[in-house]
Task: structure prediction
Amino acid sequence: MTGFLIWKFPSFKAQAELGSAYAARVGCSCRYVQGRSLDSCQSDFEPGMELVSLAEDPATRTVTGSVPLLASRSARYAGASGCLLTPED
Result:
């Protein structure tokens, strides 16, 4: 079982990074373009994204999507340009 997890870890990590980036972008647009609450934004997620959570920083108008222990990405509201993913660190 351990060997299987080690073998599949890169795939799990890649899916977590993609899911967190998607969630950050969708959550940011939902929150700052549509003006909805962050809790209601999670209903816009695709099936299978139950592990992805959202958090916001109202001061910078940023929403962060994260999968515990695997990935985290943020998107910032940029006015007329909408929400843009922030570069990875």
